[in-house]
Amino acid sequence: MSVFTRRILLSATFALGAALTAALPAAAQQKSIKVGVMSGAEEEVAQVVKKVAASKGLNVELVPFSDYALVNEALERKDLDANAFQHKPYLDAQIAARGYKIVPVGFTFVQPIGLYSTKVKSVADLPKGAKIGIPNDPSNGGRALNLLAQEGLIELKEGKGLSPSLLDIAENPKNIQFSELDAAQLPRALPDLDAAVINTDHALNGGLDIREDTIAVEKREGNPYANFVAARQGDENRPEIRTFVESYQSPEVAKFLEERFKGAIIPAW
């Protein structure tokens, strides 16, 4: 076989390979995607999503975090392709504070926040001057105050919506003393407090049970704190990210949430 003939055959082979690649389904051509999640319960869920995504031809690399504040920063720096850990009030606060170009892509689940206590069995049993811990970030702190207002422990000024602060407390009949702490520290601090409003993921990581250890729980119907997959602005329609969202919003994940968390974490799609 002449050199010229071999070149023709090689060229034909490369052309055929390119044509076959172009003809493959989009899922088969997808590359890996790197997704930031919170360690613990949320990572457990994401592992199920990862398996579903693999069946769709998408390899997902999960990057676990223990600090909420680092996840959007990593996405903004392009260390991640997407993240799945936050709700809209939290993202809005982060955008206002840091100017991130990050947008929601698709809902994942909602974790009703709870008021936990190891010292009393009901809200009515909280003593005058009770020490209550709340998250120190603006969105989850506001969420905690709204839960306390829902239970009649405090009254908030009108018009503060989802993001009230301690300065927006209009009435505090029990003279509650507030301790603002990092959300992840609240389960460890609970024994030193009369109660604490704790995000469900941190409660689960701390060995707490939303059914047994709460004295109040946020309403589930119409809950504005549904979590979602987020991506950088302009990447919303990347096939890899869309496939990840589809994998999250799957029967397999819904079944896992029901069987593993029994109402502590529920589908939001």
Automatic annotation (TrEMBL):
Membrane topology: Lipid-anchor
Keyword Nucleus: no
Listed CDD domains: PBP2_lipoprotein_IlpA_like (cd13598)
Record InterPro entries: Lipoprotein_NlpA, TAT_signal
Alphabetized SUPFAM superfamilies for the sequence: Periplasmic binding protein-like II
Cellular compartments annotated: Membrane
Primary site of residence: membrane
Keyword annotations: Lipoprotein, Membrane, Palmitate, Signal
Stretch forming the signal peptide: 1-28
PROSITE patterns: TAT
GO-annotated cellular components: membrane
Recorded family membership: Belongs to the nlpA lipoprotein family.
Protein name, per record: Lipoprotein
Originating species: Microvirga makkahensis
